[in-house]
Amino acid sequence: DTAVSQTPKYLVTQMGNDKSIKCEQNLGHDTMYWYKQDSKKFLKIMFSYNNKELIINETVPNRFSPKSPDKAHLNLHINSLELGDSAVYFCASRELGGGHGELFFGEGSRLTVL
Amino acid sequence: EDQVTQSPEALRLQEGESSSLNCSYTVSGLRGLFWYRQDPGKGPEFLFTLYSAGEEKEKERLKATLTKKESFLHITAPKPEDSATYLCAVTSGSARQLTFGSGTQLTVLP
Question: A45, B18, B35, B43: most buried, per Cβ within 10 A?
Answer without folding.
Answer: B35
